[in-house]
Write a structure and sequence with these properties.
The protein is of the alpha/beta class and 454 residues long. It folds into three domains: 125 residues, Rossmann fold, CATH 3.40.50.620; 117 residues, Serine Threonine Protein Phosphatase 5, Tetratricopeptide repeat (Alpha Horseshoe); 147 residues, DNA Cyclobutane Dipyrimidine Photolyase, subunit A, domain 3. Helix content is 46%, strand content 7%. It contains 20 helices and five strands. Helix 2 links the parallel strand 2 and strand 3. The longest helix has 22 residues. The radius of gyration is 23 Å and the shape is globular. The model has no long low-confidence stretch (mean pLDDT 95).
């Protein structure tokens, strides 16, 4: 019977989460600098209550991203192990199994950071070093506050405060390969822990998960789109977006890399560059908000909305999910989402507004659908943006701002190119609501909670 492999006395365990890259990965660098041998792990944790189980689209992306990361790490002489389980038990157990003297990871900022704190304490008690590093954000949440020391609730002063900070650290290169061959610890297979969902038939036609796809998307954006970004980003048929959001969501590229690539581009002073960096700022604002409000996906920041009476309309919700609302722009967006795993941001706002403010369906049901079907759905931006549309979030759209999907279609898809591509039959469907009547009903409902304490 063979003996179980172990690391050398100076071995390290590297724990990957939403940082699936070898470039600008501070935890990876620290592990390689401090240890003679490194073994990496990706733990699929669907057991810890602080972890929100991934949606189907995210699982498709993660499967392919981990496959790419596995190859990149192997080229560095590092084995990537796949495991499942609750992190509080699984990570310390794995550290003991491989006899690691240190464990490294990059920080998380939602409710799951409580898990990390518990694990760090447990490891220290066992005499194992545990070190965490920044990597998912441009600025750490505890460093951005107003003059009273409180977090910002409005984006503009928040982003101004961020821009007054020293520039984000310059990205680090990947470490040099370690000597020797990768270790050979027992591991589950990727197909075992993350079987591919059956419905994303077209995803691979539109996306390349992994760091190589991230850098290709960034290069394409800087070469062809950044100059037109400010004016073209709201027109869905143009496709003038960076296509970086799922890559950032899984950490295949760091926000620092994106920031400095834009800063060093000849168009760095253009309106397109300014607007694009402000979109990175909105991502930052969402994560800083989640840091202060870990229940962002389940409760509105404006507590008056706890008293909102939502419609129970399973049939209407299904029509919305299937892109059969009878409103062309919304239907096109929801069908684009199902087929490609993404939806243009302008269309997301129109689709969300129709569901929440015209159909009066709870924003959390729409958020859950996006969580399951969007490739870029993360635990901060997805609920943050739904709360923004609903009117109950940080710097939210006022409750009386109700997007008219017909007006939005005329303004941003006047020639029908986008709608005809994704929902050519939209006029065959009876509108799910009368826009004028449903607007009046929504305003009445919002007026009913207006006087309640926030």
């Amino acid at each position: 019977m063979g003996t179980c492999p172990t690391l050398s006395a100076m071995g390290a365990l590297l724990w990957f989460r939403d940082d699936l890259r070898v470039q600008d990965n501070l935890a990876l660098l620290a592990a390689c600098e401090s240890a003679e041998e490194v073994v990496a792990v990706y733990l699929l944790d669907e057991h810890s209550p602080e972890i929100r189980p991934l949606g189907g689209a995210s699982k498709w992306w993660l499967h392919h991203s981990l496959k790419a990361l596995h190859a990149e790490l192997r080229a560095l002489g590092i084995q990537l192990i796949f495991r499942t389980g609750a992190a509080r038990e699984a990570i310390p157990a794995l550290a003991k199994e491989v006899q690691a003297s240190a464990v490294f990871w990059n920080r998380r900022y939602g409710a799951s950071r409580a898990i990390d704190a518990d694990i760090k304490q447990h490891l220290h008690h066992e005499g194992i070093q545990a070190s965490s590093f920044p990597g998912h954000l441009l600025f750490e949440p505890w460093n951005i506050a107003n003059k009273q020391g409180d977090p910002y609730k409005v984006f503009t002063p928040f982003w101004r405060a961020c821009r007054e900070q020293p520039a984000p650290a310059y990205p680090k290169d990947a470490p040099d390969p370690l000597g020797g061959t990768p270790s050979d610890f027992p591991t589950a297979s990727l197909d075992q822990i993350l079987p591919l969902p059956t419905w994303p038939h077209e995803f691979a036609q539109h996306w390349q998960p992994g760091a190589a796809g991230a850098y290709e998307a960034l290069e394409d954006f800087l070469d062809h789109t950044i100059d037109e970004y400010a004016d073209g980003r709201d027109v869905p048929a143009l496709g003038h977006t960076s296509k970086l959001s799922p890559h950032l969501r899984f950490g295949e590229i760091s926000p620092r890399e994106v920031w400095h690539a834009v800063a060093e581009h000849p168009a760095h002073d253009s309106e397109g560059a300014r607007v694009f960096l402000s979109e990175l700022g909105w991502r930052e604002f969402a994560w800083h908000t989640l840091y202060r409000h870990p229940d962002l996906a389940t409760r509105g920041l404006d507590r008056r909305f706890d008293a909102m009476v939502w419609e129970h309309d399973p049939e209407g919700l299904t029509l919305w999910q299937q892109g059969k609302t009878g409103f062309g722009l919304v239907d096109a967006g929801l069908r684009e989402l199902w087929r490609t795993g993404t939806m243009h941001n302008r269309v997301r706002m129109a689709a969300a507004s129709l569901l929440v403010k015209n159909m009066m369906i709870d924003w959390r049901l729409g958020e859950q659908w996006f969580w399951d079907t969007l490739l870029d759905a993360d635990e901060a931006s997805n609920p943050f943006n739904w709360q923004w549309v609903a009117g109950c979030g940080a710097d939210a759209s006022p409750y009386f701002r109700i997007f008219n999907p017909e007006t939005q279609q005329k303004k941003f898809d006047a020639n029908g190119k986008y709608v005809n591509r994704w929902a050519p039959d939209w006029m065959a469907h009876t509108p799910v609501v009368d826009l004028r009547e449903s607007r009046a009903r929504a305003l009445t409902a919002f007026d009913a909670i207006k006087g309640l304490p926030r």
